[in-house]
Amino acid sequence: MSTPVRIAAQLQPQHAPDYGLIRDAVLRAEDAGVDIIFTWDHFYPLNGDLDGHHFECWSLLAAWAEQTERVELGALVTGGGYRNPDLLADIARTVDHISGGRLILGIGAGWNEKDYDNYGYEFGTPGSRLALLKEYLPRIRSRFEQLNPAPLREIPILIGGGGERKTLRLVAEHANIWHSFSDLGTLRRKNAILAQHCADVGREPDVIDRSTSWPGADGAAAYAAEGVRLFTVGVSGPEYDLTEVRNAVAWRDAQ
């Protein structure tokens, strides 16, 4: 393969009544050899008891930045409408410094209505949320340039989503990583659409890493053949069983 495949563990901050369970999972994931540890940016669990135990995204990332030594860190993905974009850039820059330059800024338009309603954000429509993301991305990049001290590196931006007309255009304009939630056939088709958006804005599509959820060792090679270079294994609390994470790392190391 022309560029290395990377493996991420998304340690979902749900159903853990004690933060120590999450801290232990972070330690085990780094020791298992993952390249990236993600969380997600929601305010409630997404499955099981929807009012169950849950912790906040960016507070976790700051703690993980201190705890870890090697892995990159980020949210898969942070909700674009949950924070003022200039403040989000400042938070991200601060976590980047705490980590020694290992932050990935994953961001999306948002979708979970319960988060919006219960925390007082306007849910709007898919179109209005994407319009907000379109407004926020250049503000985030501009704020990065104004912060003192500056981020330790050009913080990679990961955009999650698959809308062909709007989201993929934002990916072409701003992203270093595109996370797709698509099956293989849809990914192949959307890759071609992304390439056209890149041509329209004057970027080479190959500078954007493709990312998706781990399809299992039997399916990963087919996705890699379509250009996927980042696979993420989702792991929920309270057990944080890393068996499949280790399987993914073993597959990576065999390539």
UniProtKB/TrEMBL annotation:
<dbReference type="InterPro" id="IPR036661">
    <property type="entry name" value="Luciferase-like_sf"/>
</dbReference>
<protein>
    <submittedName>
        <fullName>Pyrimidine monooxygenase RutA</fullName>
        <ecNumber>1.14.99.46</ecNumber>
    </submittedName>
</protein>
<dbReference type="Pfam" id="PF00296">
    <property type="entry name" value="Bac_luciferase"/>
</dbReference>
<keyword id="KW-0560">Oxidoreductase</keyword>
<keyword id="KW-0285">Flavoprotein</keyword>
<feature type="domain" description="Luciferase-like">
    <location>
        <begin position="4"/>
        <end position="211"/>
    </location>
</feature>
<dbReference type="GO" id="GO:0052614">
    <property type="term" value="F:uracil oxygenase activity"/>
</dbReference>
<dbReference type="GO" id="GO:0046306">
    <property type="term" value="P:alkanesulfonate catabolic process"/>
</dbReference>
<keyword id="KW-0503">Monooxygenase</keyword>
<keyword id="KW-0288">FMN</keyword>
<dbReference type="InterPro" id="IPR050172">
    <property type="entry name" value="SsuD_RutA_monooxygenase"/>
</dbReference>
<dbReference type="InterPro" id="IPR022480">
    <property type="entry name" value="F420_MSMEG2906"/>
</dbReference>
<dbReference type="InterPro" id="IPR011251">
    <property type="entry name" value="Luciferase-like_dom"/>
</dbReference>
<dbReference type="GO" id="GO:0008726">
    <property type="term" value="F:alkanesulfonate monooxygenase activity"/>
</dbReference>
